[in-house]
Automatic annotation (TrEMBL):
Keywords: DNA-binding, Nucleus, Transcription, Transcription regulation
Location within or outside the cell: Nucleus
Organism: Triticum aestivum
Annotated InterPro entries: DNA-bd_pseudobarrel_sf
Protein name: TF-B3 domain-containing protein
Principal place of residence: nucleus
GO cellular component: nucleus
KW Disulfide bond (keyword) present: no
GO molecular function: DNA binding
Claim: DNA-binding is one of the keywords in the record: yes
Length: 190
């Protein structure tokens, strides 16, 4: 049995405003334990067909953040049908590193779900909503498995869409048939 406690756990609970009833994901894959809050769509379609596995298929991981109640409601309104994206969508807030320093990295799980290999380089399309204009951005997969976007393309996207620090966003990855693009990253503001 693994016990999680101490000052780090207390800080996590306080930072994420954990009150009970939240689903917490524990990852033991790396040297450091990683924790995340997972949001599950609790819409009641048909009580007879409720299955815990189906609920977890629709779960969305929050990257180092917690959504307000209003943001959670909006999240489920904007999430595309499962067939529209690859891998697990996730939510995060735009940080000063992302906006001011123009550094954007996607989790290793997204790269793996799209079949992107380590040390791979290529081009991705980034758009705000599925119908938005596409900004082409060069990417490289770091040795830690995370996809790192070129600062010039990412900066161009941020400026063109007037995005700023603190905005909650939903990120989904989609396959694309556009020539020269390996994947499409769709960002929705929550």
């Amino acid at each position: 049995m693994t016990r999680v406690g101490g000052d780090g756990w207390v800080r996590f609970i306080a930072h994420m405003c954990i009150t009970g009833g939240e689903l917490i994901s524990f990852s033991f894959k790396a040297e450091r334990l990683k924790l995340a809050v997972i949001y599950v769509n609790e819409a009641e379609d048909d009580e007879d067909d409720e299955d815990d596995d189906d609920l977890l298929d629709e779960a969305i991981v929050a990257q180092r953040m917690r959504l307000s109640e209003e943001e959670v409601c909006k999240l489920w309104e904007i999430i595309p049908p499962r067939a529209d994206f690859v891998g697990v969508p996730f939510v995060t807030r735009l940080t000063s590193t992302m906006v001011d320093r123009h550094v954007m990295k996607l989790p290793k799980s997204l790269s793996e779900s799209c079949g992107i290999k380590s040390d791979e380089e290529g081009s991705a399309g980034i758009c705000l909503t599925a119908r938005g204009s596409v900004t082409t951005c060069v990417y490289v997969v770091d040795t830690d498995g995370r996809t790192h976007f070129n600062s010039v393309g990412w900066k161009s996207f941020l400026i063109g869409k007037n995005l700023h620090v603190g905005q909650a966003i939903l990120i989904t990855t989609r396959n694309t048939h556009r020539p020269g693009l390996r994947m499409m990253i769709v960002i929705n503001i929550i």
